[in-house]
Description:
The structure holds 2 protein chains of 2 kinds.
Chain A: E1 5-10, H1 16-28, E2 34-39, H2 52-57, E3 61-63, H3 83-86, E4 91-96, H4 99-103, H5 106-116, E5 119-125, H6 135-149, E6 155-158, H7 168-172, H8 175-185, E7 189-195, H9 196-199, E8 209-212
Parallel strand pairs in A: 1-4, 1-5, 2-3, 2-4, 5-6, 6-7, 7-8
Chain B: E1 4-8, H1 9-19, E2 24-27, H2 34-43, E3 50-53, H3 57-69, E4 74-78, H4 80-95, E5 100-106, H5 122-126, E6 137-139, H6 144-161, E7 164-170, H7 171-175, E8 177-181, H8 215-236, E9 239-242, E10 249-252, H9 255-270, E11 275-280, E12 282-284, H10 288-294, E13 300-305, H11 311-318, E14 325-329, H12 338-349
Parallel strand pairs in B: 2-3, 2-4, 4-5, 5-7, 6-7, 10-11, 10-13, 13-14
Antiparallel strand pairs in B: 1-8, 6-12, 9-11
Helix pairs in contact in B: 1-2, 1-6, 3-4, 9-12, 10-11
Amino acid sequence: MGKRVTMILGHYGSGKTNIAVNLALALRKTHDRVAIADLDIVNPYFRTKDSLEVIKAADIRLIVSDYANTNLDIPALPQDMYAVTDDKGLTCVLDIGGDDRGALVLGRLRPALVEENDYEMLLVINRYRPLTATVELTLEVMAEIEAAANMRFTGIVNNSNLGAETTAETVLDSLEYAAEVSRRTGLPIVMTTVRDDIAKELEGKAEGLFPLTLQKNFIESKI
Amino acid sequence: MADKVLMKGNEAIAEAAIKAGCRHYFGYPITPQTEVAAYMAKRMPKIGGTFLQAESEIAAINMVYGVASAGLRVMTSSSSPGISFKGEGISYLAGADLPALVVNVQRGGPGLGGIQPSQSDYFQATRGGGHGDYHMIVLAPSSVQEMAELTVKGFELADKYRMTSMILADGTMGQMMEPVALDFDVAPAPEKPWATTGTNLTRKHNIVNSLSLVPEQLERLNMERFERYALVKENETMYEEYMMDDAEIAIAAFGIAARVSKNAVKEARKMGIKVGLIRPITLWPFPDAPFKKAATHVKEIISVELSMGQMIEDVRLASECKVPVTLCNRVGGMIPSPEQVLEAVKKANNGGKQE
């Protein structure tokens, strides 16, 4: 951690947006100029913009397409996305869309990111998602994303959870899986992200424990 | 705990279909059911199945017809506008008495409408949707777990009665993530002696067809089909009753509307209002019995829907218009809030007058 740009990628539904928003909020405590960029071209729902109020209140710049949360279902990128690579004084969190299809957007940013070489590229994993339920499946998704992004991951975020039914046990049961992904890839586990109300129970038991304040998504905001 | 996985409703449908033995999926992309196809695209090649993105919805439903003719479990999925496209093929499936599973993750309409949830395809689903006298078995899940379980049920019923089953979900059901246990039992598919599997010159060839030019014969086919429908009505109707025993007001709601309504029932009960919920799980066949019973002890039934009022007609028929049936709704991609439902309950409790 501690790089200027942190990219959050992974299987869709792995929790990327929640992590990206929480990470930006955490970074804002130590950095004056923080931006979060919503570069999701896969899903018209569950967007960074759902957390607009929190982001605004923290004085974090939101780089987002005008079409996000408009229900216009077209894959669009924000016109000011190059601020991420042009403005070297900006600490950035990039929320990238799911799977290899989502990672394609990095094509436009890759040359400048690689040249500057001040980034983290994090893989979010959740062993309770069926398509990343085993180490093998996770490595498969990881390879697909790297191929699409034409970049290599630098670290892992273990976000293993069962939604509302997550307990400390749920997280503990995922540690061996995350450790094995780490061993097989040589990548460090940079964060173990858990819902804030169970974080206390896990202190000292998981690497890089990072409590998440869960962001309201579009369904929860309607029911 | 480790037995559960975290899935979107759309993914749960896809995985459950695979568990049910479905190895053929044909579709055409549309929001908000995208993940059904995306999941199938990932999984099918790994298990020797076929995922095919067709050139159109009409092509996809006719591919379903082809595989169903060969006696294999097959499915397609779409959202409202795409289901309209498939209407012709669904009618042909009915005319040929073919079992298949069609998934509709509804969005607001009519026309292209929007991408937010809706229940406004109720008429289309429960009345058949295409031309001719026919029905589909229509299943309405209200949790991700039910998305999975009713998908399996859909295949089983389709095979049992040689009918199309439809999962009638909506955008929230498709998109929401919940823990799911996928260790349910799946009955093996029954023998299908009518399937066009090749005769090996050992039997008379089978014909699967919806064309019938002799009116006497076509009439007989329709009559026989409706005898089967009568059996479905008798044996397969499913519903859930919640706090109905002493209810003075009943709510009728399915899918996402039932979840919202359940919250409203809990709130109203805290205020001492005796209200219950009847949640149809099969929309066709519609569960007449609990409504007929409710009409003997409630003073009003409130139909909570994400439509301009479609299920309300079946509620009125089922309760034989013995008590007033009122509508509490939002449309266009909006969802009634528990507060809105609670207000409707309070009004009903107050003899139909606002407090």
